[in-house]
Write a structure and sequence with these properties.
heterodimer; A: 14 helices; B: alpha/beta; six-stranded mixed β-sheet
Chain lengths: ~425, ~220
Amino acid sequence: MNIFEALRVAFAGLLANRLRSSLTMLGILIGVAAVILLVAVGNGAGVQINNQIQALGANVIFVYPSNAKGAGGVSQGFGTSQTLTMADVDAINSHQQDPDVVAAIPIAQSGGQITFANQNYFAPTTGTTVDFPQVRDYQIAEGSFFTQDDVAAQHRVVVIGQTVVTNLFGTTDPVGQTIKINRQSFRVVGVFAAKGGTGFGSQDNVVVAPISSVWAYLSGGRGKNVSQIVASASSANTVTQAETEITAILLQRHQISDPAQADFQLQSQQDILTQANSIATALTLVLGAIAGISLVVGGIGIMNIMLVTVTERTREIGIRKAIGARWRDVLLQFLIEAMFLSGLGGALGIALGAALAYEAPHIPAIASSSFPPPVVSIPSVLLAFGVSVGIGLFFGIYPANRAARLHPIEALRHE
Amino acid sequence: MIKLESVKKTYRMGKVEVEALRGVDLLVESGEFVAIMGASGSGKSTLMNIIGCLDVPTSGRYFLDGTDVAALDDDQLAIIRNRKIGFVFQSFNLIPRTTALHNVEMPLIYAGASNRRPRALEALEAVGLSNRADHQPTELSGGQQQRAAIARALVTNPAILLADEPTGNLDSSSSVEIMKLLIQLNQEQARTIVLITHERDIAAFAKRTVELRDGLILSDERRAA
Protein backbone atom coordinates (compact mmCIF):
# COMPACT_ATOMS: atom_id res chain seq x y z
CA MET A 1 0.00 0.00 0.00
CA ASN A 2 1.49 3.29 -0.99
CA ILE A 3 1.42 6.53 1.00
CA PHE A 4 -1.26 8.19 -1.13
CA GLU A 5 -3.62 5.27 -0.69
CA ALA A 6 -2.95 5.25 3.05
CA LEU A 7 -3.62 9.01 3.17
CA ARG A 8 -6.85 8.58 1.22
CA VAL A 9 -8.06 5.84 3.55
CA ALA A 10 -7.05 7.88 6.62
CA PHE A 11 -8.82 10.95 5.27
CA ALA A 12 -11.99 8.96 4.51
CA GLY A 13 -11.91 7.52 8.03
CA LEU A 14 -11.60 10.98 9.54
CA LEU A 15 -14.37 12.40 7.36
CA ALA A 16 -16.67 9.60 8.46
CA ASN A 17 -16.42 10.85 12.05
CA ARG A 18 -16.19 14.59 11.56
CA LEU A 19 -17.15 15.71 15.07
CA ARG A 20 -14.88 13.21 16.76
CA SER A 21 -11.98 14.03 14.45
CA SER A 22 -12.42 17.78 14.98
CA LEU A 23 -12.54 17.45 18.76
CA THR A 24 -9.45 15.28 18.77
CA MET A 25 -7.68 17.74 16.52
CA LEU A 26 -8.77 20.57 18.81
CA GLY A 27 -6.73 19.03 21.62
CA ILE A 28 -3.54 19.27 19.54
CA LEU A 29 -4.58 22.60 18.03
CA ILE A 30 -4.91 24.26 21.44
CA GLY A 31 -1.67 22.70 22.64
CA VAL A 32 0.32 23.92 19.64
CA ALA A 33 -1.32 27.35 19.68
CA ALA A 34 -0.41 27.66 23.37
CA VAL A 35 3.20 26.70 22.67
CA ILE A 36 3.50 29.16 19.79
CA LEU A 37 1.87 32.02 21.70
CA LEU A 38 3.67 31.52 25.01
CA VAL A 39 7.06 31.07 23.35
CA ALA A 40 6.31 34.24 21.35
CA VAL A 41 5.53 36.07 24.60
CA GLY A 42 8.81 34.84 26.08
CA ASN A 43 10.70 35.91 22.95
CA GLY A 44 8.98 39.29 23.00
CA ALA A 45 10.05 39.85 26.60
CA GLY A 46 13.60 38.88 25.66
CA VAL A 47 13.67 41.29 22.72
CA GLN A 48 12.32 44.10 24.91
CA ILE A 49 14.86 43.47 27.68
CA ASN A 50 17.64 43.49 25.08
CA ASN A 51 16.44 46.78 23.63
CA GLN A 52 16.32 48.39 27.06
CA ILE A 53 19.78 47.21 27.96
CA GLN A 54 21.09 48.51 24.63
CA ALA A 55 19.48 51.85 25.52
CA LEU A 56 21.64 52.02 28.66
CA GLY A 57 24.45 53.16 26.38
CA ALA A 58 26.93 51.22 24.36
CA ASN A 59 30.35 50.11 25.64
CA VAL A 60 29.42 50.88 29.23
CA ILE A 61 31.24 49.36 32.20
CA PHE A 62 29.75 49.51 35.69
CA VAL A 63 31.96 49.37 38.79
CA TYR A 64 30.22 48.41 42.04
CA PRO A 65 31.57 47.97 45.53
CA SER A 66 31.65 44.23 46.20
CA ASN A 67 29.72 42.55 48.93
CA ALA A 68 30.88 43.68 52.33
CA LYS A 69 31.97 40.87 54.59
CA GLY A 70 30.82 41.07 58.18
CA ALA A 71 32.62 39.46 61.08
CA GLY A 72 33.25 35.82 60.19
CA GLY A 73 33.04 36.51 56.48
CA VAL A 74 29.25 36.57 56.19
CA SER A 75 28.33 38.33 53.00
CA GLN A 76 26.02 41.27 53.59
CA GLY A 77 24.73 41.50 50.06
CA PHE A 78 25.51 43.20 46.84
CA GLY A 79 26.84 46.78 47.06
CA THR A 80 26.60 47.02 50.83
CA SER A 81 30.09 48.34 51.35
CA GLN A 82 31.34 51.79 50.45
CA THR A 83 34.72 51.30 48.88
CA LEU A 84 34.55 53.61 45.87
CA THR A 85 35.56 57.23 46.12
CA MET A 86 35.72 60.31 43.94
CA ALA A 87 39.51 59.85 43.92
CA ASP A 88 39.02 56.49 42.16
CA VAL A 89 37.02 58.25 39.45
CA ASP A 90 39.73 60.90 39.06
CA ALA A 91 42.39 58.19 38.80
CA ILE A 92 40.49 56.43 36.01
CA ASN A 93 39.91 59.77 34.28
CA SER A 94 43.63 60.65 34.40
CA HIS A 95 44.05 58.25 31.44
CA GLN A 96 47.63 57.41 32.41
CA GLN A 97 47.09 53.65 32.65
CA ASP A 98 43.84 53.21 30.80
CA PRO A 99 44.04 54.28 27.14
CA ASP A 100 40.86 52.37 26.30
CA VAL A 101 38.63 54.24 28.75
CA VAL A 102 37.03 57.38 27.31
CA ALA A 103 35.48 58.73 30.47
CA ALA A 104 34.33 57.65 33.91
CA ILE A 105 31.65 59.21 36.08
CA PRO A 106 30.70 58.69 39.70
CA ILE A 107 27.11 57.94 40.64
CA ALA A 108 25.55 58.88 43.97
CA GLN A 109 21.91 57.92 44.21
CA SER A 110 19.43 59.71 46.38
CA GLY A 111 15.74 59.06 46.42
CA GLY A 112 13.41 61.92 46.91
CA GLN A 113 10.01 63.48 46.75
CA ILE A 114 10.01 66.09 43.98
CA THR A 115 7.52 68.90 43.95
CA PHE A 116 6.70 71.68 41.53
CA ALA A 117 3.79 74.07 42.19
CA ASN A 118 1.04 71.74 43.44
CA GLN A 119 2.40 68.63 41.65
CA ASN A 120 4.55 66.08 43.35
CA TYR A 121 6.32 63.03 42.00
CA PHE A 122 8.87 60.46 43.07
CA ALA A 123 12.04 59.91 41.07
CA PRO A 124 15.59 58.89 42.00
CA THR A 125 18.05 61.77 41.96
CA THR A 126 21.43 60.90 40.50
CA GLY A 127 24.51 62.85 41.50
CA THR A 128 27.26 62.74 38.90
CA THR A 129 29.73 64.81 36.88
CA VAL A 130 29.69 66.60 33.52
CA ASP A 131 30.57 63.48 31.46
CA PHE A 132 27.22 61.87 32.32
CA PRO A 133 25.49 62.55 28.95
CA GLN A 134 28.47 61.20 27.01
CA VAL A 135 28.96 58.05 29.11
CA ARG A 136 25.30 57.16 29.45
CA ASP A 137 24.44 58.27 25.91
CA TYR A 138 21.86 60.95 26.76
CA GLN A 139 20.97 63.82 24.39
CA ILE A 140 19.89 67.24 25.65
CA ALA A 141 16.52 68.25 24.18
CA GLU A 142 16.28 71.67 25.75
CA GLY A 143 18.51 73.96 27.83
CA SER A 144 21.91 72.48 28.64
CA PHE A 145 23.63 70.03 30.94
CA PHE A 146 25.25 71.43 34.11
CA THR A 147 28.84 72.56 33.91
CA GLN A 148 32.16 71.93 35.66
CA ASP A 149 31.56 75.16 37.59
CA ASP A 150 28.20 73.87 38.86
CA VAL A 151 29.97 70.75 40.18
CA ALA A 152 32.81 72.72 41.75
CA ALA A 153 30.48 75.25 43.42
CA GLN A 154 27.75 72.82 44.52
CA HIS A 155 25.16 74.74 42.49
CA ARG A 156 21.57 73.64 42.99
CA VAL A 157 20.84 72.73 39.40
CA VAL A 158 19.24 69.64 37.84
CA VAL A 159 18.62 68.14 34.40
CA ILE A 160 15.46 66.03 34.14
CA GLY A 161 14.14 63.26 31.92
CA GLN A 162 10.93 63.25 29.85
CA THR A 163 8.92 61.14 32.31
CA VAL A 164 9.61 63.65 35.07
CA VAL A 165 8.68 66.54 32.75
CA THR A 166 5.36 64.91 31.90
CA ASN A 167 4.48 64.15 35.49
CA LEU A 168 5.53 67.44 37.08
CA PHE A 169 5.15 70.16 34.47
CA GLY A 170 2.49 69.09 32.03
CA THR A 171 2.56 71.81 29.36
CA THR A 172 4.73 74.27 31.30
CA ASP A 173 8.28 74.80 29.98
CA PRO A 174 10.47 73.29 32.74
CA VAL A 175 13.73 75.06 31.89
CA GLY A 176 14.35 77.87 34.37
CA GLN A 177 11.70 76.63 36.80
CA THR A 178 12.58 75.76 40.36
CA ILE A 179 11.61 72.37 41.79
CA LYS A 180 12.04 71.03 45.30
CA ILE A 181 13.77 67.74 46.02
CA ASN A 182 13.33 66.71 49.66
CA ARG A 183 12.39 70.37 50.32
CA GLN A 184 15.64 71.66 48.85
CA SER A 185 15.24 74.03 45.92
CA PHE A 186 16.89 73.15 42.61
CA ARG A 187 16.71 75.00 39.32
CA VAL A 188 16.00 73.03 36.12
CA VAL A 189 18.71 73.90 33.57
CA GLY A 190 18.03 71.25 30.97
CA VAL A 191 15.78 68.46 29.73
CA PHE A 192 16.97 65.12 28.27
CA ALA A 193 15.59 63.85 24.99
CA ALA A 194 13.47 60.72 25.42
CA LYS A 195 15.48 57.48 25.26
CA GLY A 196 12.47 55.26 24.78
CA GLY A 197 11.95 51.94 26.46
CA THR A 198 9.10 51.38 28.84
CA GLY A 199 8.74 49.75 32.23
CA PHE A 200 11.76 48.05 33.81
CA GLY A 201 13.67 51.07 35.21
CA SER A 202 12.79 53.58 32.52
CA GLN A 203 15.71 55.60 31.20
CA ASP A 204 13.49 58.68 31.05
CA ASN A 205 12.54 58.70 34.73
CA VAL A 206 15.74 60.53 35.85
CA VAL A 207 16.78 63.64 37.74
CA VAL A 208 20.48 64.40 37.42
CA ALA A 209 22.37 66.89 39.63
CA PRO A 210 26.05 67.71 40.30
CA ILE A 211 27.41 65.05 42.67
CA SER A 212 28.74 67.74 45.00
CA SER A 213 25.24 69.23 45.36
CA VAL A 214 23.72 65.78 46.09
CA TRP A 215 26.35 65.24 48.78
CA ALA A 216 25.78 68.68 50.26
CA TYR A 217 21.99 68.85 50.25
CA LEU A 218 20.40 65.43 49.65
CA SER A 219 22.43 62.61 51.14
CA GLY A 220 21.57 63.49 54.73
CA GLY A 221 25.12 63.78 56.01
CA ARG A 222 26.15 60.28 54.92
CA GLY A 223 29.37 61.62 53.52
CA LYS A 224 30.86 61.67 50.05
CA ASN A 225 29.61 58.26 49.04
CA VAL A 226 30.08 56.97 45.45
CA SER A 227 27.65 54.10 44.98
CA GLN A 228 29.02 53.15 41.58
CA ILE A 229 31.33 54.28 38.84
CA VAL A 230 30.26 54.15 35.22
CA ALA A 231 32.96 54.17 32.56
CA SER A 232 32.73 54.01 28.79
CA ALA A 233 35.20 52.12 26.63
CA SER A 234 36.34 53.55 23.30
CA SER A 235 34.45 50.83 21.40
CA ALA A 236 32.65 47.52 21.88
CA ASN A 237 35.91 45.72 21.01
CA THR A 238 37.91 47.44 23.73
CA VAL A 239 35.46 46.78 26.58
CA THR A 240 37.47 43.81 27.85
CA GLN A 241 40.78 45.73 27.79
CA ALA A 242 39.13 48.71 29.48
CA GLU A 243 37.82 46.40 32.21
CA THR A 244 41.33 45.02 32.78
CA GLU A 245 42.79 48.55 32.98
CA ILE A 246 40.16 49.77 35.43
CA THR A 247 40.66 46.68 37.59
CA ALA A 248 44.41 47.29 37.67
CA ILE A 249 44.00 50.95 38.68
CA LEU A 250 41.51 50.19 41.45
CA LEU A 251 43.49 47.20 42.83
CA GLN A 252 46.56 49.43 42.99
CA ARG A 253 44.71 52.34 44.62
CA HIS A 254 42.98 50.09 47.16
CA GLN A 255 46.28 48.31 47.86
CA ILE A 256 44.93 44.84 47.14
CA SER A 257 47.40 42.32 45.74
CA ASP A 258 45.05 39.36 45.29
CA PRO A 259 42.38 40.13 42.65
CA ALA A 260 40.10 37.53 44.31
CA GLN A 261 39.96 39.80 47.37
CA ALA A 262 38.94 42.90 45.40
CA ASP A 263 36.51 45.19 47.22
CA PHE A 264 34.81 46.14 43.96
CA GLN A 265 33.41 44.35 40.95
CA LEU A 266 32.96 45.18 37.29
CA GLN A 267 30.08 44.48 35.04
CA SER A 268 29.97 45.40 31.38
CA GLN A 269 27.06 45.88 29.05
CA GLN A 270 27.89 42.52 27.47
CA ASP A 271 27.74 40.79 30.88
CA ILE A 272 24.29 42.24 31.52
CA LEU A 273 23.13 41.31 28.03
CA THR A 274 24.36 37.75 28.47
CA GLN A 275 22.63 37.44 31.82
CA ALA A 276 19.41 38.99 30.55
CA ASN A 277 19.44 36.70 27.54
CA SER A 278 19.85 33.63 29.70
CA ILE A 279 16.98 34.81 31.89
CA ALA A 280 14.80 35.45 28.82
CA THR A 281 15.70 32.03 27.40
CA ALA A 282 14.81 30.37 30.69
CA LEU A 283 11.52 32.26 30.73
CA THR A 284 10.76 31.13 27.18
CA LEU A 285 11.61 27.53 28.04
CA VAL A 286 9.41 27.56 31.13
CA LEU A 287 6.48 29.03 29.20
CA GLY A 288 7.04 26.54 26.36
CA ALA A 289 7.22 23.62 28.80
CA ILE A 290 3.96 24.63 30.46
CA ALA A 291 2.30 24.80 27.05
CA GLY A 292 3.98 21.50 26.15
CA ILE A 293 1.96 19.78 28.86
CA SER A 294 -1.23 20.55 26.95
CA LEU A 295 0.38 19.02 23.85
CA VAL A 296 0.93 15.78 25.74
CA VAL A 297 -2.69 15.88 26.91
CA GLY A 298 -3.74 16.34 23.26
CA GLY A 299 -1.57 13.37 22.31
CA ILE A 300 -3.29 11.18 24.87
CA GLY A 301 -6.60 12.32 23.35
CA ILE A 302 -5.38 11.09 19.97
CA MET A 303 -4.34 7.75 21.44
CA ASN A 304 -7.72 7.40 23.10
CA ILE A 305 -9.63 8.11 19.90
CA MET A 306 -7.39 5.85 17.84
CA LEU A 307 -8.05 2.98 20.27
CA VAL A 308 -11.79 3.58 19.89
CA THR A 309 -11.40 3.72 16.11
CA VAL A 310 -9.46 0.46 16.02
CA THR A 311 -12.13 -1.28 18.11
CA GLU A 312 -14.90 0.13 15.93
CA ARG A 313 -13.18 -0.90 12.75
CA THR A 314 -12.03 -4.33 13.91
CA ARG A 315 -14.23 -5.99 11.30
CA GLU A 316 -12.87 -3.73 8.55
CA ILE A 317 -9.34 -4.66 9.65
CA GLY A 318 -10.34 -8.32 9.43
CA ILE A 319 -11.67 -7.83 5.88
CA ARG A 320 -8.51 -6.02 4.83
CA LYS A 321 -6.35 -8.79 6.28
CA ALA A 322 -8.45 -11.48 4.59
CA ILE A 323 -7.93 -9.86 1.19
CA GLY A 324 -4.19 -9.56 1.70
CA ALA A 325 -3.27 -6.62 3.96
CA ARG A 326 -0.03 -7.33 5.76
CA TRP A 327 1.01 -6.21 9.25
CA ARG A 328 2.73 -3.11 7.96
CA ASP A 329 -0.18 -2.16 5.66
CA VAL A 330 -2.57 -1.96 8.61
CA LEU A 331 0.03 -0.35 10.87
CA LEU A 332 0.77 2.32 8.27
CA GLN A 333 -2.92 3.05 7.70
CA PHE A 334 -3.62 3.80 11.37
CA LEU A 335 -0.30 5.55 11.97
CA ILE A 336 -0.96 7.87 9.05
CA GLU A 337 -4.45 8.51 10.37
CA ALA A 338 -3.05 9.47 13.78
CA MET A 339 -0.30 11.62 12.26
CA PHE A 340 -2.77 13.26 9.92
CA LEU A 341 -4.96 14.20 12.90
CA SER A 342 -2.05 15.59 14.90
CA GLY A 343 -0.32 17.19 11.91
CA LEU A 344 -3.42 19.02 10.73
CA GLY A 345 -4.23 20.00 14.32
CA GLY A 346 -0.65 21.23 14.65
CA ALA A 347 -0.78 23.28 11.42
CA LEU A 348 -4.08 24.90 12.46
CA GLY A 349 -2.65 25.47 15.96
CA ILE A 350 0.37 27.26 14.49
CA ALA A 351 -1.93 29.47 12.43
CA LEU A 352 -4.05 30.28 15.51
CA GLY A 353 -1.06 30.86 17.80
CA ALA A 354 0.70 33.09 15.27
CA ALA A 355 -2.51 35.03 14.56
CA LEU A 356 -3.03 35.64 18.30
CA ALA A 357 0.61 36.69 18.70
CA TYR A 358 0.34 39.19 15.83
CA GLU A 359 -3.05 40.51 16.96
CA ALA A 360 -2.17 40.80 20.65
CA PRO A 361 -0.44 44.23 20.39
CA HIS A 362 -3.58 45.61 18.66
CA ILE A 363 -5.90 44.67 21.53
CA PRO A 364 -6.46 47.97 23.40
CA ALA A 365 -6.04 46.50 26.91
CA ILE A 366 -2.66 45.05 25.93
CA ALA A 367 -1.54 47.98 23.75
CA SER A 368 -1.95 50.44 26.64
CA SER A 369 0.02 48.29 29.09
CA SER A 370 3.75 47.76 29.00
CA PHE A 371 3.22 44.12 27.97
CA PRO A 372 5.95 43.27 25.46
CA PRO A 373 4.65 42.49 21.95
CA PRO A 374 5.04 38.72 21.29
CA VAL A 375 7.59 37.71 18.66
CA VAL A 376 6.85 34.44 16.81
CA SER A 377 10.11 32.64 16.08
CA ILE A 378 10.45 30.41 13.02
CA PRO A 379 12.27 27.64 14.93
CA SER A 380 9.39 27.44 17.43
CA VAL A 381 6.94 27.07 14.54
CA LEU A 382 8.97 24.30 12.90
CA LEU A 383 9.53 22.61 16.24
CA ALA A 384 5.83 22.79 17.19
CA PHE A 385 4.80 21.25 13.86
CA GLY A 386 7.44 18.53 14.10
CA VAL A 387 6.48 17.78 17.69
CA SER A 388 2.77 17.57 16.85
CA VAL A 389 3.38 15.11 14.01
CA GLY A 390 5.75 13.24 16.32
CA ILE A 391 3.02 13.08 18.97
CA GLY A 392 0.70 11.49 16.40
CA LEU A 393 3.43 8.97 15.66
CA PHE A 394 4.18 8.28 19.32
CA PHE A 395 0.61 8.03 20.55
CA GLY A 396 -0.53 6.31 17.34
CA ILE A 397 1.95 3.44 17.45
CA TYR A 398 0.24 1.51 20.23
CA PRO A 399 -3.31 1.59 18.72
CA ALA A 400 -1.96 0.98 15.19
CA ASN A 401 0.10 -1.98 16.31
CA ARG A 402 -2.90 -3.35 18.14
CA ALA A 403 -4.87 -3.13 14.90
CA ALA A 404 -2.08 -4.62 12.82
CA ARG A 405 -1.72 -7.62 15.14
CA LEU A 406 -5.41 -8.54 15.17
CA HIS A 407 -6.02 -12.10 14.07
CA PRO A 408 -8.04 -12.04 10.82
CA ILE A 409 -10.52 -14.73 11.95
CA GLU A 410 -11.31 -13.05 15.25
CA ALA A 411 -11.45 -9.63 13.59
CA LEU A 412 -13.92 -10.95 10.99
CA ARG A 413 -16.12 -12.42 13.71
CA HIS A 414 -16.23 -9.10 15.55
CA GLU A 415 -19.66 -7.49 15.44
CA MET B 1 -4.83 -27.48 -6.59
CA ILE B 2 -5.92 -27.97 -2.95
CA LYS B 3 -4.39 -30.91 -1.14
CA LEU B 4 -4.96 -31.56 2.56
CA GLU B 5 -3.10 -34.46 4.21
CA SER B 6 -4.39 -35.60 7.63
CA VAL B 7 -5.04 -32.05 8.73
CA LYS B 8 -5.80 -31.65 12.44
CA LYS B 9 -6.74 -28.48 14.25
CA THR B 10 -6.96 -28.21 18.02
CA TYR B 11 -8.15 -25.11 19.84
CA ARG B 12 -7.57 -24.41 23.48
CA MET B 13 -10.58 -22.91 25.15
CA GLY B 14 -9.41 -22.16 28.66
CA LYS B 15 -8.20 -25.53 30.00
CA VAL B 16 -10.24 -27.63 27.59
CA GLU B 17 -8.76 -28.70 24.26
CA VAL B 18 -11.26 -28.82 21.43
CA GLU B 19 -10.46 -30.90 18.36
CA ALA B 20 -12.16 -29.07 15.52
CA LEU B 21 -10.56 -31.16 12.78
CA ARG B 22 -9.42 -34.69 13.51
CA GLY B 23 -7.54 -35.70 10.40
CA VAL B 24 -8.98 -34.49 7.12
CA ASP B 25 -7.69 -35.62 3.72
CA LEU B 26 -9.07 -33.71 0.79
CA LEU B 27 -8.04 -33.19 -2.80
CA VAL B 28 -9.70 -30.55 -4.95
CA GLU B 29 -8.62 -30.35 -8.58
CA SER B 30 -8.42 -27.22 -10.65
CA GLY B 31 -11.80 -26.21 -12.13
CA GLU B 32 -13.85 -28.13 -9.58
CA PHE B 33 -16.95 -26.77 -7.85
CA VAL B 34 -17.05 -28.33 -4.38
CA ALA B 35 -19.61 -27.79 -1.66
CA ILE B 36 -18.52 -28.48 1.90
CA MET B 37 -21.51 -29.27 4.10
CA GLY B 38 -22.01 -29.86 7.73
CA ALA B 39 -23.97 -28.81 10.76
CA SER B 40 -22.64 -26.17 13.07
CA GLY B 41 -19.80 -27.61 15.12
CA SER B 42 -18.90 -30.06 12.37
CA GLY B 43 -15.60 -28.26 11.73
CA LYS B 44 -16.53 -26.74 8.36
CA SER B 45 -15.67 -23.18 9.45
CA THR B 46 -12.30 -24.36 10.71
CA LEU B 47 -11.73 -26.16 7.43
CA MET B 48 -12.64 -23.02 5.52
CA ASN B 49 -10.24 -20.94 7.61
CA ILE B 50 -7.43 -23.37 6.87
CA ILE B 51 -8.23 -23.63 3.15
CA GLY B 52 -8.46 -19.82 3.08
CA CYS B 53 -5.05 -19.47 4.76
CA LEU B 54 -6.58 -17.48 7.59
CA ASP B 55 -5.31 -20.12 9.97
CA VAL B 56 -2.70 -22.89 9.92
CA PRO B 57 -3.30 -26.55 10.86
CA THR B 58 -2.02 -27.90 14.20
CA SER B 59 -0.65 -30.89 12.35
CA GLY B 60 -0.83 -32.31 8.86
CA ARG B 61 0.07 -30.67 5.58
CA TYR B 62 -1.76 -28.32 3.27
CA PHE B 63 -0.61 -27.63 -0.28
CA LEU B 64 -2.24 -24.79 -2.13
CA ASP B 65 -1.31 -24.55 -5.78
CA GLY B 66 1.87 -26.48 -4.97
CA THR B 67 2.91 -24.32 -1.98
CA ASP B 68 3.13 -25.86 1.49
CA VAL B 69 1.13 -23.35 3.49
CA ALA B 70 1.43 -24.91 6.95
CA ALA B 71 4.84 -23.40 7.64
CA LEU B 72 4.21 -19.79 6.60
CA ASP B 73 4.14 -16.79 8.94
CA ASP B 74 1.36 -14.19 9.15
CA ASP B 75 2.71 -11.84 6.47
CA GLN B 76 3.45 -14.69 4.06
CA LEU B 77 -0.09 -15.99 4.61
CA ALA B 78 -1.42 -12.49 3.83
CA ILE B 79 0.46 -12.55 0.52
CA ILE B 80 -0.93 -16.04 -0.30
CA ARG B 81 -4.48 -14.86 0.53
CA ASN B 82 -3.98 -11.81 -1.64
CA ARG B 83 -2.70 -13.72 -4.68
CA LYS B 84 -4.33 -17.14 -4.58
CA ILE B 85 -7.61 -16.88 -2.70
CA GLY B 86 -10.76 -14.89 -3.32
CA PHE B 87 -13.10 -14.68 -0.34
CA VAL B 88 -16.89 -14.38 -0.52
CA PHE B 89 -18.48 -14.03 2.92
CA GLN B 90 -21.96 -14.57 4.24
CA SER B 91 -22.26 -10.94 5.37
CA PHE B 92 -20.60 -9.58 2.19
CA ASN B 93 -17.91 -7.79 4.24
CA LEU B 94 -17.53 -4.84 1.94
CA ILE B 95 -15.68 -1.93 3.50
CA PRO B 96 -18.23 0.70 4.57
CA ARG B 97 -18.26 4.25 3.16
CA THR B 98 -16.20 3.05 0.21
CA THR B 99 -17.51 2.71 -3.34
CA ALA B 100 -17.99 -0.69 -4.95
CA LEU B 101 -15.20 0.13 -7.40
CA HIS B 102 -12.79 1.02 -4.62
CA ASN B 103 -13.73 -2.10 -2.66
CA VAL B 104 -12.92 -4.18 -5.73
CA GLU B 105 -9.66 -2.29 -6.19
CA MET B 106 -8.55 -3.01 -2.61
CA PRO B 107 -6.83 -6.41 -3.15
CA LEU B 108 -4.90 -4.88 -6.08
CA ILE B 109 -3.73 -2.05 -3.81
CA TYR B 110 -2.32 -4.52 -1.30
CA ALA B 111 -0.78 -6.49 -4.17
CA GLY B 112 0.93 -3.29 -5.36
CA ALA B 113 -0.54 -3.91 -8.81
CA SER B 114 -0.69 -1.33 -11.55
CA ASN B 115 -3.60 -0.71 -13.90
CA ARG B 116 -5.93 -1.12 -10.93
CA ARG B 117 -8.96 0.87 -12.04
CA PRO B 118 -9.49 -0.88 -15.42
CA ARG B 119 -9.00 -4.29 -13.80
CA ALA B 120 -11.52 -3.47 -11.05
CA LEU B 121 -14.04 -2.24 -13.65
CA GLU B 122 -13.52 -5.40 -15.64
CA ALA B 123 -14.26 -7.55 -12.57
CA LEU B 124 -17.39 -5.52 -11.82
CA GLU B 125 -18.51 -6.02 -15.38
CA ALA B 126 -17.98 -9.78 -15.08
CA VAL B 127 -20.51 -9.88 -12.22
CA GLY B 128 -22.87 -7.48 -14.01
CA LEU B 129 -22.41 -4.58 -11.62
CA SER B 130 -20.50 -2.02 -13.72
CA ASN B 131 -23.46 0.38 -13.56
CA ARG B 132 -23.17 0.50 -9.74
CA ALA B 133 -19.40 1.06 -9.56
CA ASP B 134 -19.67 4.42 -7.77
CA HIS B 135 -22.23 3.31 -5.20
CA GLN B 136 -21.37 2.73 -1.59
CA PRO B 137 -22.37 -0.59 0.07
CA THR B 138 -25.34 1.06 1.86
CA GLU B 139 -26.70 2.11 -1.55
CA LEU B 140 -26.69 -1.47 -2.88
CA SER B 141 -29.13 -4.34 -2.33
CA GLY B 142 -27.94 -7.54 -0.68
CA GLY B 143 -27.58 -9.32 -4.00
CA GLN B 144 -25.66 -6.39 -5.47
CA GLN B 145 -23.36 -6.24 -2.44
CA GLN B 146 -22.60 -9.93 -2.82
CA ARG B 147 -21.87 -9.41 -6.53
CA ALA B 148 -19.43 -6.63 -5.61
CA ALA B 149 -17.83 -9.00 -3.08
CA ILE B 150 -17.48 -11.67 -5.78
CA ALA B 151 -15.92 -9.10 -8.10
CA ARG B 152 -13.46 -8.24 -5.32
CA ALA B 153 -12.68 -11.94 -4.88
CA LEU B 154 -12.02 -12.35 -8.60
CA VAL B 155 -10.00 -9.23 -9.31
CA THR B 156 -6.59 -10.68 -8.45
CA ASN B 157 -7.33 -13.71 -10.63
CA PRO B 158 -6.94 -16.16 -7.70
CA ALA B 159 -6.48 -19.91 -7.86
CA ILE B 160 -9.62 -20.56 -5.83
CA LEU B 161 -12.81 -18.77 -4.93
CA LEU B 162 -13.78 -19.55 -1.34
CA ALA B 163 -17.45 -18.82 -0.62
CA ASP B 164 -18.57 -19.10 2.99
CA GLU B 165 -22.39 -19.29 3.14
CA PRO B 166 -22.60 -16.76 0.29
CA THR B 167 -26.41 -16.89 0.24
CA GLY B 168 -26.95 -16.97 4.00
CA ASN B 169 -28.05 -13.33 4.18
CA LEU B 170 -29.99 -13.24 0.90
CA ASP B 171 -33.61 -13.85 -0.06
CA SER B 172 -34.31 -16.88 -2.27
CA SER B 173 -34.36 -15.07 -5.64
CA SER B 174 -31.06 -13.26 -4.90
CA SER B 175 -29.65 -16.58 -3.67
CA VAL B 176 -30.44 -18.27 -6.95
CA GLU B 177 -28.95 -15.33 -8.83
CA ILE B 178 -25.70 -15.54 -6.88
CA MET B 179 -25.48 -19.32 -7.30
CA LYS B 180 -26.07 -18.98 -11.04
CA LEU B 181 -23.24 -16.42 -11.14
CA LEU B 182 -20.92 -18.86 -9.34
CA ILE B 183 -21.87 -21.68 -11.73
CA GLN B 184 -21.27 -19.36 -14.65
CA LEU B 185 -17.82 -18.42 -13.32
CA ASN B 186 -17.02 -22.12 -12.81
CA GLN B 187 -18.16 -23.15 -16.25
CA GLU B 188 -17.12 -20.18 -18.42
CA GLN B 189 -13.90 -19.13 -16.69
CA ALA B 190 -13.04 -22.56 -15.20
CA ARG B 191 -12.75 -21.06 -11.72
CA THR B 192 -12.13 -23.45 -8.84
CA ILE B 193 -14.86 -22.82 -6.31
CA VAL B 194 -15.12 -24.10 -2.75
CA LEU B 195 -18.54 -23.42 -1.27
CA ILE B 196 -19.25 -23.76 2.44
CA THR B 197 -22.91 -24.16 3.34
CA HIS B 198 -25.28 -25.94 5.66
CA GLU B 199 -28.22 -25.78 3.18
CA ARG B 200 -28.65 -28.90 1.10
CA ASP B 201 -30.45 -27.07 -1.78
CA ILE B 202 -27.55 -24.59 -2.08
CA ALA B 203 -25.01 -27.42 -2.00
CA ALA B 204 -26.97 -29.03 -4.82
CA PHE B 205 -25.64 -26.37 -7.23
CA ALA B 206 -22.15 -27.87 -6.88
CA LYS B 207 -20.80 -30.86 -8.77
CA ARG B 208 -19.31 -32.43 -5.69
CA THR B 209 -20.46 -32.42 -2.08
CA VAL B 210 -18.20 -33.15 0.88
CA GLU B 211 -19.97 -33.62 4.18
CA LEU B 212 -18.24 -33.11 7.52
CA ARG B 213 -19.25 -34.37 10.92
CA ASP B 214 -17.32 -34.04 14.18
CA GLY B 215 -14.15 -32.95 12.46
CA LEU B 216 -14.02 -35.83 9.99
CA ILE B 217 -15.20 -36.28 6.40
CA LEU B 218 -18.44 -38.26 6.47
CA SER B 219 -19.11 -38.49 2.75
CA ASP B 220 -17.71 -37.26 -0.57
CA GLU B 221 -20.15 -37.47 -3.49
CA ARG B 222 -19.74 -36.42 -7.10
CA ARG B 223 -22.58 -35.73 -9.48
CA ALA B 224 -22.45 -35.75 -13.23
CA ALA B 225 -22.91 -32.23 -14.54
